[in-house]
């Protein structure tokens, strides 16, 4: 075998039930291994000071180039010549790492942008903050001192059961920001998701031998089905007008109204900047959302809501903070006060988003159209071209106008939902492309408004 190059690596094939090796002719001990599965890795083979043959994997052929692997091999083999045993050192590190050590490594690497998420981009700071909360609140207290090398799937599922039972729950922080931590299936499932992901990163990069959370069965949590009925929206609007006259926080009331008129997530609404609004296109350009950069169509009633809000000098935000240069954050407190006055229970910002989607369904819009309005990437694969979709603009106008009528107290007869026409089957082209799902579609399956 000659010098290992990309062409040589690409040409290597696998054999059933047998590893295939190719050794470099220029650097003794440097080679490529092909597993029966077809996975290819660079490695070195050497004899340690005791004369025992050792192998050390340098990295995947899909991650390292031959030149990068050659440079790593040169460093490791030079250390071997000085008496080091890099394979034994790596095993010692793997065997001695605790769950807390791996969690700290993950937070550091992710915080510095060296780990990529599912979208092949550095993990977002907001996601890291949520992961940190789950790690510090649940994972470390329950499994932190345990050695990762001894961890089993049973241990991970036992942790999930303990979280669900509330064994890692804590009261409200005495100082600083942060709410009360409780148990429950949903909290447990999200903590397991974080744990499995961080162990996956550590395994993929060779920090640990295996992902002990791989294959865990996550608990199913009940989907939030709460939505506001037309009468509840009408009553909510009436109470908001009363509280506005009595001095309730105008910024909070404005944020509640906008979330109902658009279906925006809480932070999408609160962090909204006026420069992102394009009135001509009836759209808002979000530089970053939970699903990445998006151009989101909004109705005329929503645009009028934004434009009616007072502009604070030197602040780019539609909902500026009372103090400082940031945006308003207290909408949940305002919503709680409004709902307490209106005697409405179980209303959260997510319920407002679900209400928007449900009213869109009541008006006869298809599930794909609703997904486009909400900015769901799973179904809205053409979101980047949303400015070309006239159907979404029509839908956004009609849905926001209907909600505005309800909130502003127009008569019930004026706000009846459009009667759906006879249900028809969606063509294959419409199913493949959300842009073909127009405002007249009659697929009335329940809107999926989960964020």
Automatic annotation (TrEMBL):
A GO term, aspect molecular function: DNA binding
Residue span of region Disordered: 406-451
A biological process from GO: DNA recombination
Compositionally biased region (Basic and acidic residues): 406-415, 432-445
One matching Pfam family: Arm-DNA-bind_3
Residues covered by the Tyr recombinase domain: 223-398
Tree of life domain: Bacteria
Keywords, alphabetical: DNA integration, DNA recombination, DNA-binding
CDD domains hit by this protein: INT_Rci_Hp1_C
InterPro entries, sorted: DNA_brk_join_enz, Integrase-like_cat_sf, Integrase_catalytic, Integrase_DNA-bd_sf, Integrase_DNA_bind_dom, Integrase_recombinase_N, Phage_Integrase
Record family assignment: Belongs to the 'phage' integrase family.
Protein name: Phage integrase
